[in-house]
Write a structure and sequence with these properties.
The chain has 485 residues and is mostly helical. It has four domains: 22-130, no CATH class; 146-228, no CATH class; 243-326, no CATH class; 341-472, no CATH class. It contains 28 helices and six strands. A two-stranded antiparallel ribbon has the order 1-2. Strands 3-4 form a two-stranded antiparallel sheet. Helix 3 crosses helix 5, helix 9 packs parallel to helix 12 and helix 15 runs parallel beside helix 18 (294-302).
Length: 485
């Protein structure tokens, strides 16, 4: 092993069974090895720290430009637990996570309020802010880092020790990368298989791939195979890996790049470029064995000849493809299967655009337009089973008759709607202080841009800057909808 040799003690540490994970309860109290049945069954659900970061961002959206210094205000917007969490962070009762630190750093004044200059816990915040972002997934009763996270940690490790090579455990430990050092050691001795993400990162770091996988090493072949393979983004459901539409779209695109200008009609050719699974997927789509996703439909439509090959004219499954191609893109955040207010606002707007002058009163019609879930969401809002979000309220207020239909006068749910809805009429709707644009754009289109680009939108949404629809979302103007009288 030369200069990368390990003592027996170190090897024992490398292959020892990891300790039980440390989890935190609703107020951040630490407890070891405890798992709820729901979390254990959920597989790679969003981590606890990611949930806190999302809740902090949502809390900010509800109370801005105020600071999180009022428990009464927190209770009024349903964020008393988030208020308690921030108080515990401020007192140092729990350690701030990387995700929370990054969320706080993006909210004006919040990081200084929770971790003021001179506070003994400010150091923890700054350390978390500069640390590598964990993207661990859960397998059984332990947290397992995936290739994506290891790639990020390797990249961060390199940035901290360059131009050194990763051969000193002491140096790695001083930068908080002892685990990354051990991972590279395992890759070098073949104790674990290198992932596509790790191989790609190592290939971009001068000297690192040659150090971890030297020429002549029996594990060099694994590295080279991973380096040329397609990037996997699979998720786990129960005991099996399931690829989502987003991943299949990426794999189809990569498959096309490797065999163009050929069509995907040869299994032998697919095997030669490492895409036999993608070939099988396209064959399943062609036979109608599986339903095409929005993402797959959009990618296929951009690849010359591929959509016609997989869904030829006259095929009974061509209709599915065309419906998916024009359907709304699903961008749900997985907490169970929960969609955020941002997505529901977009879906409601799309639903209205398809109904034109109709009100959302027919479930059968909603189903025919691919909006059965949106219809069910509106009915839940009407019954008060769920709280309306700011984004939904803004969109509904701009759709003639929709807010009155979903929140009729005298209903209990109307109070919540009035609390969060903007105090403007659809006719006087403005975007970022500008006059409403040309009437060639319908009110629901203008409202969607307002909801997606307003300062109240989530800082993580990353939408276009607040501009009128022709600038923020250029498109062919729609024909004005007939006015319902």
């Amino acid at each position: 092993m030369g200069e990368f040799a390990f003592e027996d003690r170190q090897l024992d540490e490398l292959f020892s069974v990891p300790a039980a994970p440390v989890v935190e309860d609703a107020e951040g109290r630490r407890r070891e090895g405890e798992e709820s049945a729901t979390e254990a069954a959920a597989g790679p659900a969003i981590t606890l720290h990611q949930r806190w970061a999302a809740k902090i961002s949502e809390y900010h959206d509800q109370v801005q430009p105020k600071l999180p210094n009022s428990r009464t205000r927190a209770e009024s917007v349903g964020h008393v637990d988030t208020y308690k969490r921030l108080s515990r962070l401020k007192r140092g009762e729990v350690r701030v996570s990387v995700e929370e630190a990054r969320a706080l750093s993006s909210l004006p004044g919040w990081s200084s309020f929770v971790f003021p200059e001179g506070s003994e816990f400010r150091v923890q915040y700054e350390a978390a802010l500069s640390g590598p972002l964990p993207v661990s997934v859960r397998q059984g009763n332990r947290l397992v880092r995936g290739g994506q996270e290891w790639a990020g940690r390797i990249s961060d490790y390199h940035d901290r020790i360059q131009p050194e090579l990763p051969k000193s455990e002491k140096l790695a430990k001083s930068f908080g990368h002892e685990g990354t050092y051990q991972r590279l050691a395992k890759l070098r001795i073949g104790a674990v298989r290198v992932s596509v993400e790790e191989a790609r990162v190592l290939s971009s770091l001068p000297g690192w791939s040659s150090f971890v996988f030297p020429e002549g090493s029996e594990f060099r072949a694994q590295y080279e195979a991973a380096l040329s393979g397609p990037l996997p983004v699979s998720v786990r459901q129960g005991n099996r890996l399931v690829r989502g539409g987003q991943e299949w779209a990426g794999r189809i695109s990569d498959y096309h790049d490797r065999i163009q200008p050929e069509l995907p009609n040869s299994r032998t050719r697919a095997e030669s470029v490492g895409h036999v699974d993608t070939y099988k997927r396209l064959s399943s789509l062609k036979r109608g064995a599986v339903r095409v996703s929005v993402e797959e439909a959009r990618v296929l439509s951009s690849l010359p000849g591929w959509s016609s090959f997989v869904f030829p004219e006259g095929s009974e499954f061509r209709v599915q493809y065309e419906a998916a191609l024009s359907g709304p893109s699903l961008v749900s955040v997985r907490q169970g299967k929960r969609r955020g207010g941002q997505e529901w606002a977009g879906r409601i707007s799309d639903y209205c655009g398809r109904l034109k002058s109709e009100l959302p009163i027919g479930r059968k019609l909603a189903k025919s337009l691919g909006h059965e879930d949106t219809y069910a969401r509106l009915m839940s809002l009407r019954r008060g089973a769920v709280k309306v979000s700011v984004e939904e309220a803004r969109v509904l207020s701009s759709l003639p008759g929709w807010s009155s239909h979903v929140f009729p006068e005298g209903s209990e749910a109307r109070a919540r709607y009035l609390e969060v809805s903007p105090q403007v009429s659809p006719d006087a709707l403005t975007v970022a202080g500008e006059a409403a644009p040309s009437t060639n754009y319908e009110p629901w289109e203008i409202a969607l841009v307002a909801a997606l680009t307003s300062p109240g939108a989530s800082p993580q949404s990353g939408g276009p800057s607040a501009q009128p629809p022709p600038v923020a979302y250029p498109r062919v103007p729609s024909t004005p909808a007939p006015v319902r009288r």
